[in-house]
């Protein structure tokens, strides 16, 4: 329940503690905000204890360091409004899982300085992508963070993430791929628009030598995504014409 609904699980736990207090003759209610802060500090103490014991977080014990596949995807639904109440205190887990914004921004600026600006959306055959592109402007809405980009292994273990402010541009998964390539020997790099991302990566690797090792991985596009990219053509002519994206599909990959 803690993983499926963290906020709800905290409320239920507080209610259970209050009920136990009332049943033993004590009175008073538990402040949820104070409890939340204390629990986060308790979690940070546990993290520091594991760090002293050389326990590395966000590492899959089943496939580290030789990972078969790393999957990256983004979600633009995690909005955070600029005028929402917050705190000026530094984060306890700064840079632990969510990459530091300054580090990501420096990498994005470096990539943007090497590319030719091209307007419009990317296409793959008759399909038009809105999920990822070379460039994207910041949202005009009064939001601070537009979403998250997260990388996982094939066992579903979270590896690393970042905040994205410009939508799902290619530089974001490229940053995660570069960071994870330094600590994991991955064979496949899975992405829902790998058929467009990989040529872009190869083009950037030709301009930035430090990205060249990333091209040693193999791009992975699920069969379902490949069918979606060419679904319009199959519906019009009644048969499936192999497109450029199908060369990124590996035998036995039935899902994303």
Question: Secondary-structure blueprint of this entry?
Answer:
Blueprint: H1 6-23, H2 32-52, E1 69-75, E2 80-81, H3 101-112, E3 123-124, E4 127-128, E5 143-145, E6 147-153, E7 158-164, H4 171-181, E8 188-190, H5 194-207, E9 218-220, H6 223-229, H7 231-237
Parallel strand pairs: 1-8, 8-9
Antiparallel strand pairs: 1-6, 2-5, 3-4, 6-7
> What's the overall average pLDDT, rounded?
76
Radius of gyration in whole Å, from Cα? 22 Å
Question: Strands of the biggest beta sheet: in what spatial order?
Answer: 7-6-1-8-9
What is the tally of beta strands? Answer: 9
> How many individual helices?
7
Could you characterize the architecture of this molecule?
This protein is an alpha/beta fold. The chain folds into two domains: 47 residues, no CATH class; 180 residues, no CATH class. Helices cover 35% and strands 14% of the residues. The chain contains seven helices and nine strands. The C terminus is likely disordered. Pfam families: KDZ.
Give a quick summary of the entry.
This protein has 256 residues and is an alpha/beta fold.
Supply the key terms.
elongated, disordered C terminus, 5-stranded mixed β-sheet, two-stranded antiparallel ribbon, alpha/beta, 9 strands, 256 residues
